[in-house]
Design goal:
- It comes from Paracoccus onubensis.
- InterPro entries: BCAA_transport, Leu-bd, Leu_Ile_Val-bd, Peripla_BP_I.
- Residues 25-360 form the Leucine-binding protein domain.
- It contains twelve helices and 15 strands.
- By secondary structure, the protein is of the alpha/beta class.
- The chain has two domains: 2-142 and 287-363, Response regulator (Rossmann fold, 3-Layer(aba) Sandwich); 144-278 and 367-379, Rossmann fold (3-Layer(aba) Sandwich), CATH 3.40.50.2300.
- A six-stranded mixed β-sheet has the order 1-3-2-4-5-6, sandwiched between helices. The chain has a four-stranded parallel β-sheet with strand order 8-7-9-10, with helices on both faces.
- Helix 1 (39-58) links the parallel strand 2 (26-32) and strand 3 (67-73).
- Helix 4 (144-157) packs across helix 5 (171-184), helix 7 (227-238) crosses helix 8 (254-260) and helix 11 crosses helix 12.
- The longest helix has 20 residues, at 39-58.
- It is globular, with a radius of gyration of 20 Å.
């Protein structure tokens, strides 16, 4: 899929003026996994990016210059993502790139962006994307390490200190597994059982049985995304576990509840964003306005609710538009510098404050600890 967006219909942001010789257009590139196994991530991301570019252009663009979006569908294939990144930079001559729905596709894009000096905002979760910090690479989702810390904090509040872990072997699952194991000791958590499953596995009963039979396990944690965590959750229910199960932010969407089934998903805890509980936010919540306005626009256009992953794309576009406006330039280095100077920028995922040492810009307060209750979401903190 490749689309070029030039038309629009609503105002998103009031943009500042671009200094110097104005160009006829602002070329923005994106590569997301709109189809394939990660389509539950990339499809809402693609929809959001297209919608927001339309809205910005409808409001007059940035200093009267419209954004021209070139959007590719990499299907979750890292090789395609690398090819599209090359095309975006060399042929489409974009000034910035959004994308990398998965850790694998992000890794394929970031080296190219870094080498060519093009600002890149990733939509994937692994901490390795921004640690160590790369000059031109930023990201909008919380890191997997932050998810481990948020989950372990909640566990300790429930007097849970000994757990079993069952992790996907995909890029995200493996990365979060490693991060949780690294921080567990400092968080006062002991991992008594450590199991894994592959992306194509259809039954995790053997692994869960071993966890259930491990003496002392007080809770189960499942780092992963896609269909795997839904299967794990159904198997967990079928085995009659009487201890809590925690999932990761990689499944923080209504689609997870639908895929798992309301009964099996009941009581599952996970860290998520304000976007999942927009209808529960108080009007004085700092994220209330951006969450409710974005949700309303997305629902009106696509007749569905935006997912957490859509929100990552929203924040990426908004951050770039804001940076270009403040930079007063479409030079990639100027955009990069403006991104790094971003402070107190409220998005659907949290409030971003980047620094030269921090290209994520979020802390644990951006996570909301959630529980699935009656087929919906309940905030716990």
């Amino acid at each position: 899929m490749k689309t070029t967006t030039r038309t629009a219909f609503a105002v998103l942001l009031g943009m500042g003026a671009l200094s110097g010789a104005a160009q006829a257009e602002i070329r923005l590139g994106a590569s997301v996994s709109a189809t394939g196994p990660a389509a539950f991530l990339g499809d809402p991301e693609a929809k959001t990016i297209e919608m927001m570019v339309e809205e910005i252009n409808a409001g007059g663009g940035i200093d009267g210059e419209e954004i021209v979006l070139t959007l590719y569908d990499d299907g979750g294939d890292p090789n395609k993502a690398r090819t599209f990144a090359t095309r975006l930079i060399e042929d489409d001559e974009v000034v910035a790139i959004i994308g990398g729905s998965t850790t694998g596709t992000t890794i394929s894009i970031l080296d190219m962006a870094e080498d060519e000096g093009i600002p890149f905002i990733s939509l994937a979760g692994a901490i390795s994307i921004v640690d160590p910090v790369r000059e031109y690479v930023f990201k909008t989702p919380h890191t997997d390490r932050m998810a481990c810390e948020k989950i372990f904090t909640d566990m300790k509040a429930q007097d849970i200190t000994k757990i079993g872990m069952i992790s996907g072997t995909d890029g995200f699952g493996a990365s979060m597994q490693a991060e949780c194991k690294e921080v567990a000791g400092d968080q006062g958590i002991e991992i008594l059982a450590d199991e894994t499953y592959g992306p194509q596995d259809a039954d995790m009963t053997p692994q869960l049985t071993r966890i259930r039979d491990t003496e002392g396990v007080q809770a189960v944690l499942n780092p992963g995304f896609g269909q795997g965590p839904a299967i794990v959750t159904r198997n967990y229910a079928q085995l009659g576990f009487e201890i809590p199960m925690y999932q990761s932010h990689g499944v923080a969407s209504n689609a997870f509840i639908e895929l798992t089934g309301k009964d099996a998903a009941e009581g599952i805890r996970l860290p998520g964003t304000a976007l999942l509980i927009g209808d529960l936010l108080a009007e004085d919540d700092p994220q209330y306005k951006v969450v409710t306005e974005y949700t309303a626009a997305y629902q009106a256009k696509y007749n569905e609710e935006p997912s957490t992953f859509a929100g990552y794309a929203h924040d990426a576009v908004a951050l770039l538009a804001d940076a270009i406006a403040r930079a007063g330039s479409t030079e990639p280095d100027a955009i990069r510098d403006a991104l790094e100077e971003t402070s107190g920028f409220v998005g659907t995922t949290g409030t971003y404050s980047f620094t030269p040492e921090d290209h994520l810009g979020l802390d644990l307060s951006a996570f909301r600890m959630l529980e699935i209750a009656d087929g919906g979401w309940k905030q716990l903190d």
